[in-house]
From TrEMBL:
Catalytic activity as recorded in UniProt: [thioredoxin]-dithiol + NADP(+) = [thioredoxin]-disulfide + NADPH + H(+)
Keywords: Disulfide bond, FAD, Flavoprotein, NADP, Oxidoreductase, Redox-active center
Family statement: Belongs to the class-II pyridine nucleotide-disulfide oxidoreductase family.
GO biological process, one term: removal of superoxide radicals
Record keyword Flavoprotein present: yes
Cofactor note (record): Binds 1 FAD per subunit.
GO molecular function terms attached to this record: thioredoxin-disulfide reductase (NADPH) activity
EC identifiers of the protein: 1.8.1.9
InterPro entries named in the record: FAD/NAD-bd_sf (IPR036188), FAD/NAD-binding_dom (IPR023753), Ferredoxin-NADP_redctase_2 (IPR050097), Pyr_nucl-diS_OxRdtase_2_AS (IPR008255), Thioredox_Rdtase (IPR005982)
Short name of any one Pfam family annotated for the protein: Pyr_redox_2
Cellular component GO terms, alphabetical: cytoplasm
Name the UniProt record assigns to this protein: Thioredoxin reductase
Length: 344
């Protein structure tokens, strides 16, 4: 993909589509029946889930992966070019990368089902995973890799212009804004971190803060105030994003006086937080202060035996495809060791 302004990797849209799906009834070789107790069931089909499926399938554990009915492939289905996943010299389109992972997992016999999990029961030696149509899968081990969701502003043009100037990930997309004037929304540590990182590329970064102070820590506050490329707009709220095919300006309103104004920018980074998808497990697994699933050190081991977690759902910090994939590998190896110990 090109470096043209307005066309970059993080094109969030609502059409999550899905990796190419097998014909109905196409059960891969080695898949166990639904009345069987599977060795491992994986919930989630991003880089973490598919990597866990590749590894557990190659370890002859016949994984069943529940991919989601409309969101299969995870966050990278929402992007255009991914330039930072190793192994692709010229980059790769996000959906192509996820398609490759899905096919690679299926090549080794992973049973991928395009269903939403509605509940799980994770205590005891045999866990159950219930999908939307009421089917209950039993498993000796479960990997939760349900990802995390960036918070949106909820503005009408936010989705239309995502990937065309609107982004949620400076690490992913900062590179595409060389020499431009851009804005970051948010007043916390991560907003300042994003803004500071973006000054490496942009000529000017306007940090839009809703109140007259930051929520961020003192050290981060000072960093923003000292940076000559960062201008702060206090008491400001974005009410509109303008541009035909790419971001051209923002509508702002002063939260104290109510006075409207416009800001000419070609990019908008939304840094108002993200929500790990822990709804299925929040009453059963220990969570961290950041609302991610708590795991033991560098492992994927959760607070319940036989339950493992991987990817952005355990990661408040790095949240990249490569770290999610690596984490999926860790979970698969942990499952192998767990099952081997049970069987010995
Ligand atoms: C717009 C955008 C652009 C990005 N660009 C880049 C980039 O260029 N490079 C990079 O390295 N990273 C990028 N990232 C970050 C990267 O996409 C994530 O770090 C990565 O996808 C996390 O992988 P994951 O497997 O943990 O979760 P996800 O990719 O979020 O996948 C989680 C999966 O779980 C499924 N799921 C959730 N709940 C259920 C359920 N109940 N039943 C069944 N399935 C369920 C979801 O549908 C989804 O398929 C980008 C992120 C965004 C949002």
């Amino acid at each position: 993909m090109s470096n043209q302004p307005g066309i970059f990797s993080s094109a969030v849209n609502l059409d999550l589509g899905g990796a190419s799906q097998p014909a109905p009834g196409d059960a891969p070789a080695g898949a166990a029946g639904d009345d069987a107790v599977h060795d491992v069931v994986i919930v989630g089909s991003g880089p973490a889930g598919y990597t866990a499926a590749i590894y557990t399938a190659r370890a002859n554990l016949n994984p069943v992966l529940l991919a989601g009915s409309v969101t299969a492939g995870g966050e990278l289905m929402n992007t255009t070019e991914v330039e930072n996943y190793p192994g692709f010299i010229d980059g790769i389109m996000g959906p192509d990368l996820m398609n490759n992972m899905q096919q690679q997992a299926e090549r080794f016999g992973a049973d991928i089902r395009y269903e939403d999990v509605v509940s799980v029961a994770l205590e005891g030696e045999v866990k159950t995973v219930t999908i939307e149509d009421g089917t209950v899968l039993k498993a000796r081990a479960v990997i939760i890799s349900t990802g995390s969701e960036y918070r949106k502003l909820g503005l009408e043009d936010e989705e239309r212009l995502s990937g065309h100037g609107v982004s949620w990930c400076a690490t992913c997309d900062g590179f595409f804004f060389k020499g431009q004037n851009i804005a970051v929304i948010g007043g916390g540590d991560s907003a300042i971190e994003e803004a500071t990182f973006l000054t490496k590329f942009a000529d000017k970064v306007t940090l839009i803060v809703r109140r007259d102070e930051f929520r961020a820590s003192e050290i981060m506050r000072q960093r923003a105030l000292d940076d000559p490329k960062i201008e702060i707009r206090w008491n400001s709220r974005v009410t509109g994003i303008n541009g035909e095919n790419k971001v051209e300006s923002l509508d702002l309103v002063d939260t104290v006086t109510g006075e409207p104004s416009q800001l000419a920018v070609t990019g908008l980074f939304v840094a108002i937080g993200s929500d790990p998808r822990v709804g299925l497990v929040k009453d059963q697994l220990e969570l961290t202060a950041e609302n991610t699933i708590a795991v033991d050190g560098r492992t994927s081991t959760t607070s319940l035996p036989g339950v493992f977690a991987a990817g952005d759902v355990v990661d408040p910090t790095y949240r990249q495809a490569i770290t999610a994939a690596a984490s999926g590998c860790v979970a698969a190896v942990d499952v192998e060791h767990y099952l081997a110990a049970l069987d010995s």
